Known about the structure:
By secondary structure, the protein is α+β, with helices and mostly antiparallel strands.
Amino acid sequence: MKKRIGLLYGGKSAEHEVSLSTARAVIGALNFEVYEVYPIFITLEGEWRRGERLIKPVSTIEELQFGDPTTILENNITDFLIDKRGNAIQFDVIFPLLHGTNGEDGTVQGLLEVLNLPYVGNGVLASSAGMDKVVMKQLFEIAGLPQVPYTYFIRSEWKSDQQAVIERCEEALDWPMFVKPANLGSSVGISKATNRDELVKAIKIALQYDRKIVIEQGIVAHEIELAVLGNDDPEISVPGEIKPVTEFYDYDSKYKDGSTALIIPAKLPVQIVSRLKELAKRAFKAIDGSGLVRADFFVTDDHQIYINEVNTMPGFTPVSMYPLLWQHTNVSYSALIDRLITLAIERYEEKQQLHYKKD
């Protein structure tokens, strides 16, 4: 019997377009002989729309954005579980292909938990901790993972005393600094600052996206990424190196201009690769990860290692780093999707063994 898959994509997020590209790629890789595939689209305005069952891959991203008002799930977003005749659709698994806010931050994962639906990827805690860079760093610190120095503040602090915030950054860090929204991905809103004027400008940009801002110490290092796959005993891919032509790996270099070189596997000594894999697994467990995580590191020329962050829903098109890392570890894109669906069902079945009532 075919497994019934609900693909959840789009969303109210700065990474809406990235999600659409991911959805198109996953649909193209799914085996329609094995899966029944139902698209569930969330518009930029937050409307939930479910399309008819797909019987073949889509040829354009526009096909994934349903405009027919009759498909809008009006007041109850859980209507995506009901077909046109009012019968319940029994999904075997939901595959969230949402990036950024309201997608990989634990919110939609919480909804799926309440609905008692199996879903691919990280749970509520791991997703929310992985999205909030400050919480993530605090968990990494507890786990003993090496990190570059950082500081953070919230919007109200900036509004009340900008000078105090700037002085705090200069006391804690040296130039250059990287300014980031705490709760966003895909390098949206991130800027490099080499002086006070640039710092103020970077902070104003970041505050457009979040109320909490992280300032990190800039270092000269190689950007190394590893892919993690599994639940309690995850596997780790070969490492890959990001070589952006721009000053850093920003949104445009990731998704638009193709100016970034990906070196897979990264040219690193065996002992450094072994250490990176150990730290990637430790980071995965520090956030209580499940399914998939991409762990990002800095490695200096003298082989000092610092964890940068983990991404609980990394870029997932065939040319994104996460799938490419597994391709070079002998796991194809379609096989990777199959593995993630299997892991989701395994994690769900484990949860169903828990007792919620006193005997």
